[in-house]
Amino acid sequence: MSPASHVPATGEVTGVQALDNRAGSPAEAPVLDIADLRVSFRGRRGGVAKAVDGVNLSVNRGEIVALVGESGCGKTTLARTILGLQRPESGEVRYLGKALDYRRRALKAYRGEVQLVLQDPTGALNPRHTVYEAVAEGPRVHRMDDEPGRVARALSQAGLRPPERFFLTYPHELSGGQRQRVVIAGALALEPKVIIADEPVSSLDASIRGEILALLLKLRDDLGLSVLVVTHDLGLAWNIADRIAVMYLGRIVEVGTTEEVLQSPRHPYTRALLSVVPEIDQIEPVVLRGETPDPSRIPTGCRFHPRCPALADGTAAAHGIADDCVGSPLNVLPATGGHRAACWLAE
Amino acid sequence: MALLEMRDVHLTYSTAAGDVPAVRGVNLAVQAGEVLGVAGESGCGKSTLASTVLRLYPKSARVSGEVLLNGEDVLTMRWGRLRAARWSEAAVVFQGALHSLNPIQRIGKQLTEPILLHDPTATPKSASAKVRQLLDHVGLPTSYVDAYPHQLSGGQKQRVMIALALSCDPEVLVADEPTTALDVMVQAQILDLMSAVARELQMAVLFISHDLSVLGSTCDRVAVMYAGRIIEEGPARDVFDSPKHPYTRALSAAFPTIGDRASRYAPSGLPGDPPYPADLPSGCPFHPRCPDALPVCPTVDVKLRHAGPQREAACVLVGQPAAVE
């Protein structure tokens, strides 16, 4: 199997397209707009791992988008590239219509507006810093005024009330849910427009999970925040997301509103993911064999074809597309324009 | 007879700050070929409970009750007998499994070691044949005997850990959060593997997880723990689908059913934090967080009550005549 080239035909993909009016305000440009983004890493033996291999994605003002996929699918690399921590090989990250400027000063200003919330709050907080110090760090780096007021406001927005009571506490004195709230407060102190949350509840207990998700919803409603949630938890997406993008091996393979993607999935991969969610027992579980394959050897044709249940059970052959699945590359899905799946069966 | 049985097990840690009762009177039984799930939040005592099966708790801990492995009490075993029982009669798949493998030893060597230690008739040759068979059993290529742990993915390492636990043909398997760090798809593969192995080898499995939804679909029965006690027990699917205890209801609601309009944009949680074991609330320890608490709850410490066929729950609201609808 040789690595397939995935140069899209000209005109196939354009960055900004007709705006999605399902969420946010349809009149304005998306807050975040990712256009044909590609990121690759060079391996030691000359191999090239295409971690992000052509991604279009947009997040509107006040919209919560869930980016769903297995480990190794490139979702964290995508999040890092959006934050400017990783330079793309080609393509653009546009913030409020403008391409990301990688000069130091511009990047610093950008990072004040687009904030990251990580998975493990215990690891994200310095155990020797008080809650006040943890939340004040961002405003200090960005030389913002009224530090105590900002910290108090952020803590209270994150649901730690009264904020003054938490100023001098240390992370070990807090519960897991409270620690995650401190991490979120640290992001809010900079008054960001976008929060990128990487598995925000996966290390938290079931009873706390709901509270943190409710907090993200409330922040969206109160502050008009846009949120990109990176997760493998489809239940989380059902709880809070407006739209879902399913990522597989560096590409988005299905995108649409939460209802569309979760209730009438078109891509066999999305269907397989849904079938192993323990709460759904009407569906016969399709447990895919193996794990996400190696991004340095992306299969030809549809990148999912070696694991695809629809190809294996002959559904693809019955539709006369089995050869396409194995041999013809699929188009990169556009960022907007409704429910789409990158699958020959859905074409 | 149950392969694993616990009778009124208590475990109290002695710390500088005083006694911490982590497990406060647990009764349970697991039959051959049965998977019993134990669910609960962090700090509820579920890992401590697991540690009693092989007496893995610290020396300073005070334990009472009985933990019967095939009828024999682990808590009173002599040291030599306990050493023999560990791994060959009951084995554990640990929580941090991904870090439990020795990074500088080949997989084959790590799997061979317990076999040679526990089976006096084993030769290096027979052990190596057994290792290949084990790898095959957990769905790994036998060529992995020569691999180092860093060459494997998370799911593959977890499979090695399961093979390791099966290496001495134990009758009882304790799995403490075996899939927590894994992806959905890999988690599904591992859960499938564990339940298949349990049934095929007729083992008794104690499966510990914080994720009630995972237990609901994998186990035969589920016990839900809160503050060191079992507060609900019953057939897995029933407990998840129609919980009787308000705490189980909150846990179950935390995992939404996709397609259920009621949970759309309405994540469900449980306010408050689990109580600190050394400082438990009076009466029912759940009453400060309970949405259905009655005035009597702070004063009565409810024991498990009959709550339908094969069901038990520790709540004053359970088992009383339905006075009002």
N-to-C series of helices and strands of chain A: EEEHEEHEHHHHEHEHEEHHHHHE
In whole angstroms, how far apart are the ends of chain A?
Answer: 24 Å
Number of strands of chain A: 11
- The helix tally of chain B amounts to 10
Alpha-carbon Rg of chain A, integer: 21 Å
Strand order of the largest sheet of chain A: 6-7-8-3-9-10-11
Shape of chain B: globular
Q: What is the SS-derived class of chain B?
A: alpha/beta
What topology, given as strand order, has the largest sheet of chain B?
6-7-8-3-9-10-12-11
The biggest sheet of chain A amounts to: 7 strands, mixed
Greatest interface: A-B, 42 and 41 residues
Instruction: Look at the structure and give the mean pLDDT of chain B.
Output: 89
Class by SSE composition of chain A: alpha/beta
Describe this structure in words.
The complex is a heterodimer of chains A (347) and B (325). With 347 residues, chain A is of the alpha/beta class. In chain A, 32% of the residues lie in helices and 19% in strands. Chain A is built from 13 helices and eleven strands. In chain A, the strands form two sheets. Chain A has a seven-stranded mixed sheet with strand order 6-7-8-3-9-10-11, with helices on both faces. A four-stranded antiparallel sheet of chain A has the order 2-1-4-5, covered by helices on one side. In chain A, strand 7, helix 7 and strand 8 form a beta-alpha-beta unit. In chain A, helix 4 crosses helix 5, helix 4 runs parallel beside helix 6 and helix 5 packs across helix 6. The radius of gyration of chain A is 21 Å and the shape is globular. Chain B is built from ten helices and twelve strands. In chain B, strand 4 and strand 5 form a beta hairpin. Chain B is globular. Chains A and B meet through helix 6, helix 7, helix 8, helix 9 and helix 10 of A and helix 7, helix 8 and helix 10 of B.
Q: How do you describe this structure in short?
A:
The complex is a heterodimer of chains A (347) and B (325). With 347 residues, chain A is α/β, with parallel strands linked by helices. Helix content of chain A is 32%, strand content 19%.
